[in-house]
Amino acid sequence: MADSARFSLASEPLALGALDGRYRPAVAPLVDYLSEAALNRDRVHVEVEWLIHLTDQSVLPGAGPLTEEQRAGLRKIVTDFDGDSVTELAEIEAVTVHDVKAVEYYIGRRLEALGLAHLTAMVHFGCTSEDINNLSYAVGVKGAVEDVWLPAARSLVEQIGRMAEETRDVPMLSRTHGQPATPTTLGKELAVLAWRLTRQLDRIAATEFLGKINGATGTYAAHYASVPSADWQHVSKTFVEGLGLTWNPLTTQIESHDWQAELYADIARFNRILHNLCTDVWSYISIGYFAQIPVAGATGSSTMPHKVNPIRFENAEANLEISNGLLDTLAATLVTSRWQRDLTDSSSQRNIGTAFGHSLLAISNVAKGLERLDVAEDVLADDLDHNWEVLGEAIQMVMRAEAIAGVPGMENPYERLKDLTRGHRVDAERMKEFVQSLGLSTEAEARLLELTPANYNGIASQLVDHLK
């Protein structure tokens, strides 16, 4: 079809990105915290609370505390924020060509109906745009982390923990460098991943969300020029802390965003560990350790009807990589601002929601993927039974202990085991004959003869208890 005949979709209300299209249901909870509309609602929230704070503290002569009805009326501006509000703000911004100024005017329009027209000059008093933006972003990101992302991530880790508990006694051949190695249990290996992920979640849960409100270059210059009698640092600190944030006392025009860089690095690290889980589980599926439970009516392959593809884990890998690409960029970019201010952070921060969205989508896919797994214990057992050579480590260590105890004939244990096992398959009978030929003490020989690849896993099962 010629280009001139192609139907254009540009004017249709269609999503450009996958998060707002195909994957919208999985990430929808983030919209209330990290979308453009949520940012504007939070800006209105910060501006309204600043006005209330200034009047409650009687900071400006002639503007004392408001009545409860007036406070409620101001806060209703925030709770009533909806689609029509978004449209109105866009119309104002089309004139102001400034998003925060549009918020100031949006609030100002509503003061007369509340009997507060005389306070119009107090909206945005002493503020630079970044005073409002940094607090709005902090409020939004804090809400997204605490109300959406962390609960989803913790739920997933708890799911992994339950799987670890259920499979704590299921013996499994280890593979170091991809080669057969000292056996473990499936539960212990899942517990390792759950433990790693939990440490990152604990770091993320301890995040400090910083904020500032101190003027154009962080000096309170305009504040003291207009109202020199006020204790502006106290006003600033109590306001920021009243929003549930940590006050940053030393900034340029911007809050330095170091807390954001720290948070995004921690989330990226969580993502990378989760990516490790995806590749491990994908590999276990590939060798048959896990069987996937088919979804009724679903197609695994367009041409091979027998296939049940591990698409949930592959989807998660891709989304974790995309999320980390954005998070790494944000963490690197946001800590730098030329002199007292540049606007690189303004464009960068508009991608925070996208970074969180891809991570949340991955978490959802991993959870769904894990739900569809069955442990193929017969496959794990068969793999162990075909790798008796992994007992070579145990035999070598017993021989060393025997030599130290003075038992004769225990020389060169490593070399003797290497000759027996390296590059060779050793079955149960051959291993038994070898053990009996070593001249071990009766107790040591009996102990080794009781070992099998399935029970040579130390205290792997007990180690799962560390998740409790």
Describe the structure.
This protein is mostly helical. Helix content is 59%, strand content 5%. It is built from 19 helices and 6 strands. The longest helix has 38 residues, at 129-166. It is elongated, with a radius of gyration of 31 Å. Residues 302-306 have low confidence and may be disordered.
The overall pLDDT average reads: 93
Distance between the termini: 62 Å
Indicate the low-confidence ranges by residue numbers. Answer: 302-306
Structural class: mainly alpha
DSSP summary: helix tally? 19
Beta-strand content: under 5%
Strand order of the largest sheet: 1-2
Envelope shape? elongated
User: What is the H/E order?
Assistant: HHHHHHEEHEHHEHEHHHEHHHHHH
Entry keywords:
468 residues, mainly alpha, two-stranded antiparallel sheet, two-stranded parallel ribbon, 59% helix, elongated
Tell me briefly what this model is.
This protein is mainly alpha-helical.
Helix-strand layout with pairing:
Blueprint: H1 24-34, H2 36-56, H3 68-79, H4 83-96, H5 99-111, H6 129-166, E1 171-176, E2 179-185, H7 186-205, E3 210-211, H8 221-226, H9 232-242, E4 246-247, H10 258-286, E5 290-292, H11 311-333, H12 344-349, H13 352-371, E6 373-375, H14 377-385, H15 392-404, H16 413-421, H17 428-436, H18 442-449, H19 460-463
Parallel strand pairs: 3-4
Antiparallel strand pairs: 1-2, 5-6
